[in-house]
Specification:
186 residues, mainly alpha, 74% helix, elongated
């Protein structure tokens, strides 16, 4: 397979899955919930526990957005398609850091989770042939680390708020990228 054939497969994934925007929209909801959790009158351990629970709606929300936006979760016949699932599973190997934060420094858990979430976007830039993912991976991970390291336990919500803003920017950028590719394909 030459580079042109490979790029056609990547663009096909980008167009059929609409750059995975349904997952980003689901993540916006989850991070909005995480932001809200850290504004509630709870101790850090309770807030960290509910932060774990806040990601439970991710897949149902992504499924709902896929129905609304008519995105495909699988692209039959595209040999690259399973790679997306493997890239998503890769972030699970970073979860021990989240557990470490949960048990040792619960107020740092949103920061750890945000860094992992942002960093896991990086390979999707290659997968969907877009610069949105790798750029926002750096912006998200570095920004969350800076904000999280400066936050005290009473303003941890700022990490979640920052993630919501980054994910909205990413969603807009991915939609523009998708539309540009869709127009070029016509």
């Amino acid at each position: 397979m030459d580079k042109t054939q490979l790029d056609k497969l990547r663009i096909e994934l980008s167009l059929e899955a609409k750059n995975g925007i349904n997952f980003i929209l689901g993540a916006i909801l989850c991070w909005g919930l995480i932001t809200w959790i850290w504004t509630m009158p709870m101790n850090d351990q309770q807030s960290a526990f509910w932060t774990f629970m806040a990601v439970a709606p991710m897949m149902p929300a992504a499924w709902l957005f896929s129905k609304i936006l008519k995105t495909k979760w699988t692209v039959a016949g595209n040999p690259l398609q399973p790679l997306g699932l493997w890239m998503n599973f890769a972030q699970l190997f970073y979860f021990p850091f989240i557990f470490l934060a949960f048990f040792r420094a619960p107020a740092d858990m949103p920061m750890a989770y945000a860094i992992i979430t942002g960093a896991h976007f990086f390979p999707y830039g290659w997968f969907y042939k877009t610069m949105a993912y790798p750029v926002m991976a750096g912006v998200t991970a570095i920004g969350a680390a800076i904000i999280g390291s400066m936050a005290s336990s009473w303003d941890v919500y700022k990490v979640g708020g920052y993630m919501v803003i980054c994910l909205i920017v990413l969603a807009i950028w991915l939609w523009i990228d998708y539309k540009n590719k869709d127009q070029a394909a016509v």
